[in-house]
Design brief:
Largest sheet: none
Number of strands: 0
Helix content: over 70%
Strand content: under 5%
Number of domains: 1
Distance between the termini: 35 Å
Order of helices and strands: HHHHHH
Mean pLDDT: 90
Radius of gyration: 17 Å
Shape: flat
């Protein structure tokens, strides 16, 4: 997109609606409002798929729109997983690490200066994993299933803690290496 970046776009509206849904999802999870949690979660997934396609098809894609999208995703999964952690289903470490990993990701990408976000393969898979982990108990409870079990959800949460830490160390190592190369 040429010219000044416009924040008021249809794609960003979808993203902002998802951001507004994040605390509502956390509240629905906390209160065991299964239908509301599922509706909010699956609406967020649909809007996450739609917003980027809408932005590209309308010529409204921008670095700032990408930052808004990724910020919203991190906020949405962090708050939802925090609500599950508050209920004892997951460790509080996971939503905390998601927030810290996102801050590192945005910071070392220089996203606040309008630069595009630089993703890693592991970071991308972690992002998908956070949504999958959040959706598993929500969908399980909506359908009245007993699988995946609480223990399996918790174990997958711990795996994501480990892969998030690996991703953060990898990003820090890459950033230090980049700074060393540019200093030479």
């Amino acid at each position: 997109m040429d010219g000044p970046v416009r924040w008021l776009t249809l794609a960003n509206l979808f993203t902002l609606l998802r951001l507004g849904a994040a605390p509502l999802l956390a509240l629905a999870v906390w209160r065991d409002a299964t239908i509301a949690a599922a509706a909010l979660f699956w609406s967020a997934v649909a809007s996450d798929f739609a917003d980027g396609r809408i932005a590209r098809s309308r010529g409204e894609a921008s670095s700032l729109g990408g930052l808004l999208d990724h910020t919203t995703d991190a906020t949405f999964v962090s708050l939802g997983l925090f609500a599950f952690a508050a209920k004892g289903a997951l460790s509080f470490l996971l939503p905390l690490l998601i927030a810290l990993a996102f801050a590192q990701y945005a910071g070392d990408s220089r996203a606040l200066r309008g630069r595009p976000l630089r993703t890693s393969l592991l970071g991308r898979w972690n992002g998908i994993g956070y949504f999958v982990l959040l959706g598993m108990p929500i969908t399980r409870d909506l359908l009245g299933f007993t699988w995946p079990s609480h223990d399996l959800v918790s174990a997958l949460g711990w795996i994501l803690v480990a892969t998030t830490l690996v991703s953060m160390v990898d990003r820090a190592h890459a950033l230090v290496g980049t700074r060393r190369r540019t200093a030479l």
